[in-house]
Amino acid sequence: MIPRYSRPEMVAIWSPETKFKIWYEIEAHACEAMADLGVIPRANADAVWKAKDVTFDVARIDEIEAVTKHDVIAFLTHLAEHIGSDEARFVHQGMTSSDVLDTCFNVQLTRAADILIADTEGLLAALKRRALEHKDTIRIGRSHGIHAEPTTMGLTFARFYAEMDRNLARLRVARDEIATGAISGAVGTFANIDPAVEEHVCAKLGLKPEPISTQVIPRDRHAAFFAALGVVSSSIENIAIEVRHMQRTEVLEAEEFFSAGQKGSSAMPHKRNPVLTENLTGLARLVRMAVVPALENVALWHERDISHSSVERNIGPDTTITLDFALSRLTGVIDKLVIYPENMLANMNKFRGLVMSQRVLLALTQAGVSREDSYKLVQRNAMKVWEEGKDFKTELLGDADVLEALSAEEIEEKFDLGYHTKHVDTIFKRVFGD
Amino acid sequence: MIPRYSRPEMVAIWSPETKFKIWYEIEAHACEAMADLGVIPRANADAVWKAKDVTFDVARIDEIEAVTKHDVIAFLTHLAEHIGSDEARFVHQGMTSSDVLDTCFNVQLTRAADILIADTEGLLAALKRRALEHKDTIRIGRSHGIHAEPTTMGLTFARFYAEMDRNLARLRVARDEIATGAISGAVGTFANIDPAVEEHVCAKLGLKPEPISTQVIPRDRHAAFFAALGVVSSSIENIAIEVRHMQRTEVLEAEEFFSAGQKGSSAMPHKRNPVLTENLTGLARLVRMAVVPALENVALWHERDISHSSVERNIGPDTTITLDFALSRLTGVIDKLVIYPENMLANMNKFRGLVMSQRVLLALTQAGVSREDSYKLVQRNAMKVWEEGKDFKTELLGDADVLEALSAEEIEEKFDLGYHTKHVDTIFKRVFGD
Amino acid sequence: MIPRYSRPEMVAIWSPETKFKIWYEIEAHACEAMADLGVIPRANADAVWKAKDVTFDVARIDEIEAVTKHDVIAFLTHLAEHIGSDEARFVHQGMTSSDVLDTCFNVQLTRAADILIADTEGLLAALKRRALEHKDTIRIGRSHGIHAEPTTMGLTFARFYAEMDRNLARLRVARDEIATGAISGAVGTFANIDPAVEEHVCAKLGLKPEPISTQVIPRDRHAAFFAALGVVSSSIENIAIEVRHMQRTEVLEAEEFFSAGQKGSSAMPHKRNPVLTENLTGLARLVRMAVVPALENVALWHERDISHSSVERNIGPDTTITLDFALSRLTGVIDKLVIYPENMLANMNKFRGLVMSQRVLLALTQAGVSREDSYKLVQRNAMKVWEEGKDFKTELLGDADVLEALSAEEIEEKFDLGYHTKHVDTIFKRVFGD
Amino acid sequence: MIPRYSRPEMVAIWSPETKFKIWYEIEAHACEAMADLGVIPRANADAVWKAKDVTFDVARIDEIEAVTKHDVIAFLTHLAEHIGSDEARFVHQGMTSSDVLDTCFNVQLTRAADILIADTEGLLAALKRRALEHKDTIRIGRSHGIHAEPTTMGLTFARFYAEMDRNLARLRVARDEIATGAISGAVGTFANIDPAVEEHVCAKLGLKPEPISTQVIPRDRHAAFFAALGVVSSSIENIAIEVRHMQRTEVLEAEEFFSAGQKGSSAMPHKRNPVLTENLTGLARLVRMAVVPALENVALWHERDISHSSVERNIGPDTTITLDFALSRLTGVIDKLVIYPENMLANMNKFRGLVMSQRVLLALTQAGVSREDSYKLVQRNAMKVWEEGKDFKTELLGDADVLEALSAEEIEEKFDLGYHTKHVDTIFKRVFGD
């Protein structure tokens, strides 16, 4: 996790304080359930709630851990310092560390997912607003980086909206994947603890009980979770690359927002770098790199080995923090992206109408000219545009052979942009509904 | 794709014959829709169906492509050879190659997903059968590869069932991700073709129309698809590793089925290698390696670049063929896995009752012995087991200090396996329902 | 492996015929060494050479394998059909299959590496030629896709040359990594075969004996090999991305070669797609995806498990074939790349001299104008260029305040391109030597 | 970076203090070189050295950066606070930020590599010591996790030594890959700075000048660097997996060192978990996950884009810190690994001599018994071992048919372990030299 690419709310989820708070809640709810079952005295269960408003002292717990060499025991020892060691004596009874650790990890991932979902909703709002704003802003569509046919900037935003909307659905599924808890003991048989405890704790924490766990919650869930984040990050890269292309000096159809006072912007107005989207391209790689180790974590030995743990200590916080930051940064970029419609038109007309050559070719054929002759007619006019800088439409209108097949009106019609935008409304309805 | 790791039904999806058949269907349905719209003559649309039962001649199409340097044009030329070039003249009107290629690719992926879903259902049936069969077969649960507490072989199978059942759900979602088609023209604006054509073709092919495409169907869908396959393959690895561990010489709790006549098996009965599950471990890596390039494919330049194409030509067939083979092989392994319950018991008893030491320790404490004294009592008996090969229960029953705290009956009870299996039914209900 | 992305020489290395030929050579040389040691009769060793010119019958071997279920035994059986079963009876004595398989795999990888090395040398020759040709062809250097300072096209080629020259060195190291053989028996102890056999066979095949093998040659070697290929492929992507950028409609500083007769090129001269370099971008991903499974292959269980095998059956041929094709395709692209120096100049001058604003700013400061005043002077002239389409140098020459600090000559000098190219020779000497 | 998996010396390389110190050295040496060239006054160059012993104030620099929004400018401003702003006015002249950032990054990577090299040398020493110690400690060699033929524990250590020795060579090459610096200006043309400055600074910092840079040092170097680290980490996983297997309850041929006082060890002597090597398995994944983004970083747009930067801010420190920790932890594991030779023998004899069945089979054949009859003879005795728990050698010695072909002495000889260890010395010589 790199501080400069992080936001406080997500960072807080991964703080030791939050972790210990969640551990506490798991233990307290478990005691309550055990008291309900008559397994431990009610008074002891009640006593645990005395620490309800405590912020646990991380330094103190670290100090104890230095002696006990065990994080959960250190926490329990510290908890006893708050509620009294006699009162605390039934805390954690029949449980194993993993019951606490794995359930806590999933609470953290679930909360992280909630933030990522909210981030994505924010991004969607920005994309929709810009899509509607530029629904009719004409720009050239490009395949292979080469001019193809006209489209609109609104369609570009709508496309990103649709993609991010799919990602929203993926994030929701991913959230559900890891919204489970397990309090099932050393090998998952509930030998020392009743399944009712698991049910109670999970209900209180907003999780579903893991139908079958071993010592751990199965890691295919986490693999699917991180894979989903990898897909989202790749979509971020997709949008980032579009912005970077639009801001290229030769294209200049859009620019990341540049505050008036930003140094260098007016003395070197040509030198505004798309650094935010370049950064997003890199951040996407960072999120994506967690996918493979998360997949490698699935195959644990027998009822569990602990090889996944060091991986998750890293990718748990790092990946969610980075993706949160990236989604937020991208929302800002989209929100404030400066669009240059006039440059879009200028770019489209760079070759003075040649982008319409295919439409003219088709029209000639449909007017009965042989494919070969149509081709020659288009070619000889195209070459004058390409090599001598002439205007394509003008040349066609002045070519007697062309005029034999197509009227001036028909030629004009081939250069009508409305032809290309006539279904924009239909597409917008598909994407945004009515 | 490696022939030895492939099955004919899946391979057939990726044959040139199948591809051309799908191309044909797309074109024929599109003509029909265009005739419905009055855009092309009905007779021409009807004529296309003359080729309904044709198996297209791949060699002939290749021959034409060698001249035209364009696969879709080569196909169309060959199609005209079947239905007459005059009749064929409206085929593909207003469409671009990608309309055909991308829609076809998604048809292939959808069919591949259907096979993978059926494979997984077959695997689930095998896992369930073996789970029920060995519901009560006691074996030692292991964490870190070290004996922990007893569990049952049925729980192991049930765990894999639950994991594969989640994978089934993931495969269904993945199938839906890529079950879309697009016939939207050069940059996705429907400039030259009515959206109704797309709707008709998609309906006929069992796809949904892509709400907004450019020249291509957005690649986040494919990334999510291949990521799901990567998760499934990691679960295969998980099961494979379990079997390999069980078949280790020192463990020998299970063996891959070995036919009676298989060479070497009876002269060297100790030398039966888990080669199928080792192979599955490798195949899992092959499936998984497609995830990263699929994620890298998402960010295309503007309305499309063609960088994704060569990647998909490889991972489309290779990954689905390999995963199909792996699921099928794994089903066979599970179905015929030879289980050795007596070895499971022998392994559990390797240290003559020491696995129960934690339960005894707990019992002593609960009986009022101080934590420190309990520890010493357990330790002195454990050491006799560990170092002198004694039996733990016997030692405890002969230790007067222990007997002061626990009755012989209570000690016996700590070694009761029923304690560990009492919730197996509950877990089975969670996993398999009632 | 996709036929359209493959070349015959590399494909031949991976054919069954080649594989069996290498197996044969290993066995024949091993017999010779064993005869030298007096372990087997000389006559039997000599007899093996009778098959020296045989092309082994793959179909026949497959037929035998269908019965024996073992590829090496099938081959040996077929070999006996050629040289007589009595003569063949000492072939393979004391060896295990892996001795043959692993040594053969490394022979194949070594030969593949030789081709890749030759490919890279060919690419280097093309890059050097184009670098020298365009040493002085001015173009704008870009950071962040934004114009920065002038550079030359020759420097771009020279940069790629230097990068590919490092890759050449990496390929040579990678070749050495896997140029080892092992004939050391079931667990690598030489229990049944003398180390002298290994030494002899390796010497004959151009390999070094693996200092310590188990049943297999250690897989860190192969991991390093495929990692090197991944680096090379990333450099291919790097060059491909440059070409794709240069060919963008708005940039058009270069184009992939387009044969005069190529369809569409003259009727739609604006529509030439950089499909070769887009394809190379995808091929780079395919080569790169082998790196992770090759790394995952390193950790085998004890003296060997066979999980690596299925992975290598795929990535061995696929990765080397794809990289060979990609290097060759890239060489063709570079060789025939059409460069447009006039467009390079036009692009550089897109903002009429503004790229020099930083140099002017520096000159003003050095001439004693305060940083703040310098900034204002540059800014007011820059804005006239940016907003009103004026020429920067002209504006400066007409600004009395600027002329107070800098003479007209000094201003002219700031626009001198020689300033930027004065060290090109130095850099070329560093890259290409004298 | 996770504090619990890090060591101070490596962490220090990546501290802001170290970074600023290196920046300072680059600037100071550059000034010196410029003074040598007469480009800036000697007095100003000398003045920079006034800060030679300063530890720069990170908080103060952050404070300035909050205003200037530029890290290098913030540093230079703070430097001026130390040496006087008039004296500082020529610092950084003609340089760009990347000259400082990229050269500094490579200094850091080079220093990190030096630590990793030293770590590996330490590991090699431990491996060699243990190899010599257990040169003759017999254990069973295993393929597929199944007993194969005897080998020695020393050969296992020697094998890891040889593998790590190759990694040492790879690390040295990797170090050289990134031991370059660049001070070449905005697009690498040295327009504003003489190449002599670069040469001087690099010489002082122990780097080679990058033969041709753009604004940045080419990223194929870094890709090769991180790929090498990925290979090393996979070898760590390889060793870790071996230890984990040896420590399995059923195998118990070795254990990670467990201090006498460690809680639980004597009350539950069967429950010592190989947590260090499990942790190493996970750490290996963390190191390896940097390989793909490092490869993706190679293809930058034109003379540079900044997409690589966020990736490197993470993987630069995280990967080197994690690998350093892992190498050190592994050295400790090897150094103190508890070996159980008696368990090794017990495991080897688990099937009472059956591991020798192949040798017996061969001996019978060589003694003239037909292959079929030999097989039957072995089989009937093997089955008595396998099914009735008999001893293989005893059975053979009591089988009259066997004795007809082999004398009792010859049978005994087949069970001689010396047969398997006779070339251990040869192999040790190959690995360790004389």
TrEMBL record, chains A, B, C, D:
This is Adenylosuccinate lyase. It catalyses: (2S)-2-[5-amino-1-(5-phospho-beta-D-ribosyl)imidazole-4-carboxamido]succinate = 5-amino-1-(5-phospho-beta-D-ribosyl)imidazole-4-carboxamide + fumarate; N(6)-(1,2-dicarboxyethyl)-AMP = fumarate + AMP. Signal peptide: none annotated. Pathway: Purine metabolism; IMP biosynthesis via de novo pathway; 5-amino-1-(5-phospho-D-ribosyl)imidazole-4-carboxamide from 5-amino-1-(5-phospho-D-ribosyl)imidazole-4-carboxylate: step 2/2; Purine metabolism; AMP biosynthesis via de novo pathway; AMP from IMP: step 2/2. InterPro entries: AdenyloSucc_lyase_C (IPR019468), Fumarase/histidase_N (IPR024083), Fumarate_lyase_CS (IPR020557), Fumarate_lyase_fam (IPR000362), Fumarate_lyase_N (IPR022761), L-Aspartase-like (IPR008948), Pur_lyase (IPR004769). One of its GO terms (cellular component) is cytosol. GO terms for biological process: 'de novo' AMP biosynthetic process; 'de novo' IMP biosynthetic process. GO terms for molecular function: (S)-2-(5-amino-1-(5-phospho-D-ribosyl)imidazole-4-carboxamido) succinate lyase (fumarate-forming) activity; N6-(1,2-dicarboxyethyl)AMP AMP-lyase (fumarate-forming) activity. Its EC number is 4.3.2.2. It comes from the Bacteria. Belongs to the lyase 1 family. Adenylosuccinate lyase subfamily. It is an enzyme of class 4 (lyase). Residues 352-432 form the Adenylosuccinate lyase C-terminal domain. Keywords: Lyase, Purine biosynthesis. Gene3D superfamilies: Fumarase/aspartase (C-terminal domain), Fumarase/aspartase (Central domain), Fumarase/aspartase (N-terminal domain). It comes from Sulfitobacter brevis.
